Inverse folding.
């Protein structure tokens, strides 16, 4: 089969690989319908994360179940499934408390930018749609498997709710879908921080009521101006840098909540800032599995259309171009079709 | 009047100072009945905080109202009052959300280790007891003004509740009263981290079900062993160092809560630790004012006896000995009588 492999920073190739097989009785093998490039894939692409050996890429996926192990009960061959980027048993204490991405049997899921992939712990990781979805819904279902689920978790972690003012740091797909999540959760006001016209437009479409173009301390000042000097009730952080984390913390009012989902890179939070800010801080890899049933319902029912974050679609064979387009910020997010 | 002044690390003196007067219409002047030395007073005493000029010390207090400004409505001369260490208006949006220690008109309160003190924003800062309390209740009421209120906030911030396993990092007065708070809030199991027999005994009296003597990574390992490998649901941090913060974060299960109230010193939290720990982090200077009415009720009703943390009582004139006893850990907490 064909699969996307990262050999070194900037060096992504689509190559022949063995088709994966069921190895454990809890595995499933799926034939991918669509996959995509993640903002977090750009960290190694840009050399910010080490690549020790050629790495099969991709962890966002929808597909058709091809084969399941003898122990799999919840999905069967022929079903359309949406998965999450950590495999989880969905039965341990941690999963049952809603943190499937910290499951005691957690396993990474990888190699989704390919024709086929193996998904461990299939029963606790995959969610089948009721019947075969329309082709038009595929991008949105694909978004649910990571960026939507992650934006959703950020909004939950930031305790977004009716009557609240929400600010979103980061205008990538996750930040934009954080805006959508905040809107769905009833936020009164949603401030998107972005300096790109196309992303601003999508943020507004997803529910943003205000746009702030400033960053860092200037951005914080602007948020305070918009909130009577107090800061936002809820701030979603979807970047993962020191600047974005401090921007989020400082833009939050005392007693407010920061939901952070940007994969943390070289961040060291000063204790005093945290102590005197009086914010609640919560985040990490999103427990997407928790939200999949609800998100799939919202998508299939036509309530939300998160697939709009895909502004470029390419055949799998052009995966290298997909990385390039995202790296150069020519595309918000690229969908790949095997 | 006599007042305690810190001139330099290790140099605490009781000296003559002008008796404070009402300056603003919202001020009250109180005659102190009791004050005490705080764990946070030891930071400058040990040279960890700078002392730029001679500093009047003390921010924990109970007393009798001597005089009030023309605008004060809620307390009157002759009343016994308990105060908090930040003055707050108790009417702004931040106060009404429960964060009086981040009041938009917040002012520090100081100079309580003295005969008299001025309390700004008296209406929003002081709470009068119903009638004159028994002398036996004074230490507990004094504890409410900081260490109990702070331990209480740590437990609230860590979302302690029925059925939960709680760990407490720090065996000073705040940590010990965090144990008491956790017990009052219905925790199923309370693990106190302490290696001092006298503090362990008091922790058990306050409700600790387990004691862990190990610190750092060893302490974390022990907490995991006691919690099926998962970590505690709620961890209270009452020290303020890098080691204690990481100990608290690592001892908390995914999805659990850390309540941190130790005044942060040289702490820089690694973003990746926070990100992958999946904990909720919340803390800061405790909004003691929020809890005072409830705590006063519990104390006067005889439900709790937090005054037990005072294991040494000295006349104000011996304030220097009080600091020395706490610095050398010969006393958990010293009560001063003017």
């Amino acid at each position: 089969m064909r699969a996307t492999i990262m050999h070194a920073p900037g060096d992504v190739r689509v190559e022949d690989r063995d088709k994966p097989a069921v190895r454990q009785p809890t595995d499933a093998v799926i034939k991918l319908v669509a996959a995509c490039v993640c903002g977090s894939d750009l960290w190694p692409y840009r050399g910010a994360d080490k690549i020790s050996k050629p790495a099969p890429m991709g962890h966002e996926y929808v597909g058709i179940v091809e084969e399941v192990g003898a122990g799999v009960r919840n999905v069967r061959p022929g079903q359309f499934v949406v998965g999450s980027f950590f495999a989880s048993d969905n039965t341990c204490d941690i999963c049952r408390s809603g943190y499937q991405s910290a499951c005691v049997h957690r396993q990474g899921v990888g190699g989704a930018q390919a024709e086929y992939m193996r998904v461990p712990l299939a029963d606790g990781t995959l969610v089948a749609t009721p019947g075969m979805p329309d082709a038009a819904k595929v991008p949105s279902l694909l978004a649910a498997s990571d960026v939507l689920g992650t934006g959703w978790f950020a909004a939950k972690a930031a305790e977004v709710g009716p009557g609240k003012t929400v600010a979103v740091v980061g205008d990538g797909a996750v930040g934009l879908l954080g805006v959508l999540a905040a809107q769905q959760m009833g936020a009164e006001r949603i401030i998107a921080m972005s300096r790109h016209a196309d992303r601003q437009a999508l943020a507004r479409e997803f529910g943003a009521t205000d746009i702030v173009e400033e960053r860092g301390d200037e951005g914080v000042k602007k948020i305070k101006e918009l909130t009577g000097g107090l800061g936002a009730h809820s701030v979603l952080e979807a970047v993962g840098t020191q600047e974005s984390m401090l921007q989020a913390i400082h833009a939050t009012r005392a007693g407010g909540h920061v939901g952070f989902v940007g994969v943390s890179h070289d961040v060291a939070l000063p204790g005093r800032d945290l102590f005197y800010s009086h914010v609640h801080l919560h985040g990490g890899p999103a427990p997407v599995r928790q939200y999949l049933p609800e998100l799939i319902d919202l998508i299939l029912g036509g309530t939300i259309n998160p697939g709009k974050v895909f502004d470029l679609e390419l055949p799998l064979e052009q995966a290298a171009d997909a990385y390039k387009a995202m790296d150069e910020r020519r595309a918000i997010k690229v969908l790949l079709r095997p």
